Predict the structure.
Amino acid sequence: MIKVSNAVKYYKDGEKKIAALSEVSLTVGNNELVVILGPSGSGKSTLINVMSALDRCDMGKIEYDGTVITDLPDRKMTRFRRDNVGFIFQEYYLLPDLTVENNIRMGASLAKNTDYGEIISMLDLDQLMKRMPYQLSGGQQQRVAIARALAKKPQVLFCDEPTGALDEATGKQVLSLLQDYQRKNNIAIVMVTHNQGIAAMASKVVRMNSGRIISEEINQNIADAADVRWA
Amino acid sequence: MVNRWLSLYKNNKVNSIGIFIIVLLTILLGTVFLETNQAMERSMALVSQGETQDFSYLLNITADDLAAAGYDYPTALANKNEVIAENYQIVWEERPFAMVRTAGGKEIFRIYQAERTMDRLYLTAGTLPAVGEMVVDEQYAKRHGLEVGDVFTVSGIDYTLSGRAVFPDQLYPLVDNTGLQYDPGSQAILALCEEDFAQWETAVNSPMAGRFSGGTAEENAKMLERMQEDENFFYVTGAQDNMQIGAAITSQQNMNLIIMGFSMGILGGIALLLVIITITQQIKTEQHNLGVLKAMGYTNIQISAKYLGYFFLILAAAVIGYLVGHLLTGSFYGLQVARFNLPFIKGPINYGNLLVMGVIPAAAITLLAFLTSIMKVRRPALHLIKDINIKKNGITVRRRNKKITDRNYLAGIRKIILFSNLLLFVFILFGGFALGVQIQFAYTTYNMTANISQSVMEGINYQSDVRFIDAVEDRSADNYYFYDRAGKLELADAKESKLYNLLIMGSGDRSLLQLYDSQGAIIDINEEDGLVINRHIALQNGLAIGDLVNFDSGGQVTGVPISNISQSVYGTTIYMGQRAAIERGILDAEEYNGMYSGEAVEFDANEHLAIVQADNLRESLDQSVGMFRVTSIILFMCGLVIGTTIILLSIFGVIANYRKYIAVMKIYGYSDRECSYAAIDGFRLVSMVGFLISIPYTFLLATIMFNIISAGSDMIYPVEFNIPSTLVCFGLTMIITEILIRATKRKITGISFREIMEH
Ligand SMILES: Nc1ncnc2c1ncn2[C@@H]1O[C@H](COP(=O)(O)OP(=O)(O)OP(=O)(O)O)[C@@H](O)[C@H]1O
Ligand SMILES: [Mg+2]
């Protein structure tokens, strides 16, 4: 379980201090899918960055199953990310000089995972393994990025607008894949999005504004990704 | 506009500083060498206003000539000169001189008459001497702080200095006749008025100076050739081939040109590559904004125009480099002409040089950079904005991708990164190469100077003195005796060589002078059937062991084979054993006129024609190679600075180029160490490969270069492949690369996830 307690994060804008996060508290269960919604600039990315040990908060505490990660030195934070978390971004950031297969290996080799064939079939990438990123469509690239993240066998998967650059059909396909994997493997997913519809597939929906969580609701009726309304 | 350019440099601080340093150093080096050559030209032109001779010569006065003149040598000489002057349309002047050695043999003076019709003295201060006055050569005066009005004593006679002068026929002075090199610390050329000069006993057989009275340069060159074939001359040497006048300076100038071309070619290439890489990188980081500009309707040229700003950076570096070089030229010139007798004529700032060395290259580099930029932004605006990677990966990258397995993942992508950016790859290769060339070239030069001294001094054990006297009567076994005979070698193609001293070696302690062959084995001179020459003489005349030559000593011509070549690279002395010399009729009987001695010999009067001490020889050798030594140290320093700069910039370049790679890897949990292993460590090897390529390149180039210099010089410069020094250079390159790679790891630590999260 991830537990965020009173996280505060400032950014300096010249003389001014902007509070990107003010006293944010949140828990994410071990096989939950949490969706974070909110207007642009509300602190969504900042929150998942500190949650995923990419960034540090200025005050407050983040624990993973009781282990505090907030005070870890850089080296240990890196180690922590390596062992526990996966990332998916709006832009896919595949390494342009590597084939699909070798991009996926980037995640797999970190976990010493040589058994990622299932992930590849699940994401329907078998035919694309030898291609280079420039030979893929956006949806295909995002699928590769997901495979790369999953091949690393993360406990928690952080997704910052994973469907932001995709059309409805492709977007839903990507979401389905994530949902299936999450259900099968019991991992936690924290997903940031602008798309209100996606909230329907979450077990918990968090809304943010001005660096604060303004509402947090548990979703009793978790919808299938294929059935969400696309906004 | 200016602000835009300033921000251009600011956004690329490291590369801009690198470009600045490299361009500055390149132009500085180039300027120093170029302007030193130009200063030499200027000095020579000034000095030659005194109507420098076209050639010098000695006549063959035969028995018939003597008989015709009633056995009066001066008359015979004058008569023959008249005939020659008529035949070849020349004017001539005898150039008698007196040699004076102060007690102890420490100081040597050569005294000339000050009034001349050609080779007139170029006065750097004062006037020509009147009775009781004297002019002293500029270098000696400078070294000893002599000024006009000072009193100077020669053999107990006091003279007042009326002036300081450069002697146009002694620009590379030869004070002593035995081959001892000029040293302004202890040797001077002096000039007296006619009346005072007559008081001194002059050496026999003074040379003649001559000038053509008309004719074009070509006609005169032909005439000179005819004279050289004429039996009536003992020798004729054109001013250009004369070490004392043209040859030594020309060879120095050639050397400067070669070093200049050598360094500037490499450095210029580096500067160009660097600018192109900088711009490529910059476009990569800015391509989003460039795309927006393009979408708004700006043309490729308008977008690329800002990169023209590099012109001013390069220009500023070039101008500063030029000015500093211009200022340093005086000191460098002083260094180079330490063994010459040339004044330094300070030149004004030469805008022509600045244009050729600074402005034009700066413009050319900028233009190429501009074109590069146009090529890079010639893509659809959307591609630029969205950072769409339309890069088609090369075959190497695809092939390397196939070789990656689950087990060698990092090593595999390391190779891919290595080969995915050709420009960077070449740049780093070049970095190792340039560092290698510069330091190895410097090292090779340095070694060579040590080799020369060593190979000349190796067989010389006469700590004390060598003296030439008319006859050696009472001989002791502690000394080594010889007969000295001057003569020329006539080669197979009827060409004639310079004048050499043939030492016919006889009895005594042979350890005082040992000759070694090319394998380093001792040559037993008395077992040799013919002449032993040194490597320099062999090279200059194209001689090999077994060749037959005629030895022409004052008209007496003897056929003799070259039986061995000693390893010495310097000097105009050739050797023969006494037995062989007598058998071949070069020497009539066992006789001696000189010796090597291990003891200190008391110097008495003027009876010694010449005295050479081993120490003197060592000193003068040191002096003649000292300039190379200093040059090599300068080149070494420049090499280190430049090489380090390039390697540093290449590592920065790699990191800049792969920032996003590294950011993604770091987000995923790869450690800094793994990232630097994948992204930069591979380039260590590339820089080593660059170094390896530089080994044969440097060796070849140095060989060619020093052969060119040797041809016009009084020694050969033997370039040898030296494994220890190559290893030292290799180690140095490795250490520098290693230090830089380690130092730049911090840069990787500085790359954060924000790299890819912010737009
Ligand atoms: N590196 C930074 N320096 C300064 N301010 C920053 C930085 N990163 C974010 N901010 C500010 O912090 C606040 C929160 O930013 P954040 O990126 O978390 O928003 P977001 O909710 O993810 O927005 P979006 O939906 O547009 O991605 C914003 O006001 C933003 O301007
Ligand atoms: Mg965001």
Observations:
- The helical segments of chain A are 44-51, 74-84, 100-108, 117-122, 138-150, 168-185.
